[in-house]
Amino acid sequence: MIHSMTGYAVASADSPRGALALELRSVNSRYLDLQFRIADELRAAEPLLRERIAARIARGKVDCRLGFVAGTAAAPRTLNADAMRELARLADEARRAFPDAAPLRLADVLRWPGVLAEARADEERTRAALEDLARRALDELCAGRAREGARLRAAIAGRVAAMRGALAAIAPLLPEAVAAYRARLAERLREALGAADEERARAEAAFHAAKTDVDEELTRLAAHLDEVEGTLAKGGAAGKRLDFLAQELNREANTLAAKAAGLRIADAALELKLLIEQLREQAQNVE
Fold first, then answer.
1. Fewer beta carbons under 10 A from the terminal one: N or C of the chain?
2. 29-45 mean pLDDT
């Protein structure tokens, strides 16, 4: 199974401190890019959320928003002596640098992050609620990315099938196209060199006609398509691999178009390039 990089999920839960709401949005990105917007009261939850998201998602830009609404019956809290000592030290340093600054007010001290601490039991219950909230939101996000990934897989497989059809249509055209190209080239060379250089005209025509042989390009195109199908079957984080294969397919299609010995082959090469571009656009959405 492959996954898309786009998805959305939202989940909510109650905790001893109040109501929690977690929203996850993911879009395309070359790497895993995590962005957090967390209520000040729950700043300590960021490492937990970062760890849980990174364990489930390999690639994409994920915007994580954790909201908090305090309960009407607030849980009892205590003063954190370590946080107050650190705040006092910082205040002393600030006063030395700015002697005229007003001293900290009690309200400022109490609002300082970490000064008011929850009871240990409440911290554990809040963490458990956050764990469950993150799990449910990630389950929903990954399920949505999987559904979108299935659609992407079908779209890419359809492009691969169409490209195989184009390659199959090109193969029977090659002998006739190369022979016609060689005949046209030989005629032009005879006109330029004269009848006395018939052997040279044939040799030059054969040399230049050999440059229109695209058997190697067709073989490589088929091999790359085999790799695309194998990557789809394997699943997992396949986006970068598919994007690389699209580049290789495009390289071979460009060579095929440049060496095309006939209009029908050139048209088929252009059709291939269009299908490859469509495949690449889909692959850029894959995780």
1. N
2. 90
67 strand-pairing partners: 21
8-state DSSP, 287: -
Question: What's the half-sphere exposure (Cβ side, CA atoms, 13 Å) at 149?
Answer: 23
Rounded Cα distance, 121 and 187, in Å? 94
The 10 Å CB-count burial string (b at 16+, else e) for 259-271 is bbbbeebbebbeb
Contact present, 84 and 117 (Cβ < 8 Å): no
Residues 6+ apart with CB under 8 A from 119: 75, 76, 77, 78
More confident residue, 283 or 218: 283
d(CA 238, CA 229): 11
251 by DSSP, 3-state: which?
Answer: helix
Please say if the pLDDT value at position 179 is more than 60.
no
Q: At what angle do helices 239-259 and 120-170 cross, to 10 degrees?
A: 20
4 DSSP assignment: B
Residues 6+ apart with CB under 8 A from 67: 20, 21, 22, 23, 39
